[in-house]
Design goal:
alpha/beta; 7-stranded mixed sheet; 6-stranded mixed sheet; 20 strands; binds NADPH dihydro-nicotinamide-adenine-dinucleotide phosphate
């Protein structure tokens, strides 16, 4: 397995893939560790999870640089990602016990009845490269606190991050086998999913990967949580404060160099403010600094792999061929590395790729609508339903509008984000199940009913 620096095309390092027998040993080890780990107290898990937060902070620069090298994340954003991972560890260290308290049921009879939340066992997590630390910690922190153990199959282009995360838990004092990175190809996951030692599967990634993994897990009657792609609408109503809205629009689209499932991708703008929005938005998108992700001032780095850049460019070209007008960007940068510039497409046809597919890079599609009703229709006219935001000067109007979104995470006057304190996940082809908050930690547990007569 090789990691390639997408800013230069140079090979950083190579890693031996695990053999079948090493994977087998890892599953044995996970099973043995689970038997002991499930019996540990919340206080003990809390201490170790707090240690994990400390390890992350102590090594922030090293982990941030690793992400920057392996997948091109601008260094400042990489540091924030590590900080956020420390936060989710602390959040669950503090709240896991409360989220998993026995729930005493109402007095329907004279019996004492309650629900207890018990861990399931080794959970396989198939994870993507775009937030190579955060996506993994978002899974690992609640699950380890709940008494499960984790098996990570990370994306093939970030093996260094996969190894480093395993090391975080080891250094924090978690027992061997509590969290293991399987350095393996996606083809080998079918056998792992089939294996009876693996009790459940979670995947964050593309829709095809989600379908393949869910189908396999379903055939084995194993529970899955899927966090797949999105094509989030960013709806600008006629009373929005344009200056702030435009800044947030660019931030929503360009975060992580455009490679985020919850990035704003379709900008749906009321006709009364459309011209002004487009003019300011193009200016704002153009002002973001594209460059070497290791430079402190860089805001947009390279795309994580050359093939991903090619895929994005094809979507942009096909959208222009279908009739869209490209107001900014639209061509890969003429320099070393997989760099794509901030791009703005207007007059985007509703059946073109930028309208119907997930664009995983810094390309924005802008649509003009006559009224609120049309805005909501267009916002919901997507096979995805992950996040959505609406921008308005009237909060009640915003809340009313947000209730109409067909999406899992809806925001008024804020860019869609994942925060440990609130549930995160989608509907439609964006997946199912929830991560984070109480909902997240209760996904992979046996909600056991106990009735005492
Ligand atoms: P993938 O969905 O293919 O990869 C995500 C993870 O799934 C990786 O660990 C990958 O392993 C694994 N995987 C893929 N197929 C299978 C399978 N059949 N069985 C088991 N595991 C599998 O994403 P890509 O990297 O190819 O990116 C393609 C597109 O996916 C992006 O352009 C974007 O649209 C979307 N995407 C969405 C993400 C999100 O956060 N929602 C994150 C990443 C991508 P391996 O790397 O070894 O193939």
């Amino acid at each position: 397995m090789e990691s390639i620096n997408p800013a230069t095309g140079e090979r950083i390092d190579s890693y031996e893939e695990h053999t079948e027998s090493e994977i087998d040993d890892a599953l044995d080890h996970a099973t043995e560790t689970f038997a002991e780990w499930r019996e540990t107290s919340f206080a003990h898990r809390r201490t170790l999870m707090e240690n994990a937060a400390d390890v992350l902070r102590e090594n922030e620069e090293q982990y941030a640089s690793l992400m920057t090298e392996e997948m091109g994340k601008p260094i400042e954003q990489a540091r924030s990602e590590i900080e956020k991972c420390a936060w989710v560890c602390e959040y669950y260290a503090e709240t896991a016990e409360e989220h998993l308290q026995d729930e005493v049921l109402g007095a329907e009879s004279d019996a004492h009845a309650f629900v207890s939340y018990e861990p399931l066992g080794p959970v396989l997590a198939v994870m993507p490269w775009n937030f190579p630390f955060w996506q993994v910690f978002r899974f690992a922190a609640p699950n380890l606190c709940a008494g499960n153990v984790g098996l990570l199959k990370h994306a093939s282009n970030v093996p260094g991050c996969a190894k480093a995360i395993e090391e975080v838990f080891r250094e924090a004092g978690f027992p061997e086998g509590a969290f293991t990175s399987l350095l393996a190809d996606s083809d080998e996951m079918n056998d792992v999913i089939d294996d009876e030692r693996v009790k459940a599967v979670t995947l964050t990634g593309s829709e095809p990967a989600g379908r393949a993994v869910a189908e396999r897990a379903g055939g084995n009657l194993k529970k899955t949580v899927l966090e797949l792609g999105g094509s989030d609408p960013f709806v600008v109503l006629d009373d929005a404060h344009l200056e702030e809205t435009v800044e947030k629009a660019a931030q929503g689209r360009l975060q992580n160099s455009g490679q985020s499932c919850i990035a704003a991708k379709r900008f749906i703008v009321h006709t009364d403010v459309y011209d002004e929005f487009v003019e300011r938005f193009v200016e704002e998108m153009e002002s973001w600094t594209v460059g070497d992700p290791g430079d402190e001032e860089t805001e947009v780095g390279p795309q994580a792999r050359e093939d991903l850049l090619e895929e994005l460019h094809e979507q942009v070209q096909d959208t222009v061929d279908a009739g869209a007008d490209c107001r900014l960007g639209g061509e890969p940068l003429d320099r070393e590395g997989a760099f794509y510039p901030p791009t703005v497409l207007v007059d985007v046809p509703e059946d073109s790729p930028a309208a119907t597919e997930e664009t995983f890079g810094p390309a924005a599609a802008v649509f003009e609508v006559d009224d609120e009703e049309e805005a909501l229709r267009l916002a919901n006219d997507s096979s995805f339903g992950l996040g959505a935001s609406v921008w308005t000067g009237d909060l009640e109007r915003g809340e009313r509008f947000a209730r109409g979104f067909e999406a899992g995470c809806c925001f008024v006057n804020e860019v869609v984000k994942s925060d440990p304190r609130v549930p995160f996940g989608g509907v439609k082809n964006s997946g199912y199940g929830r991560e984070l908050a109480a909902e997240g930690i209760r996904e992979f547990v046996n909600r056991k009913t106990v009735w005492v007569q």
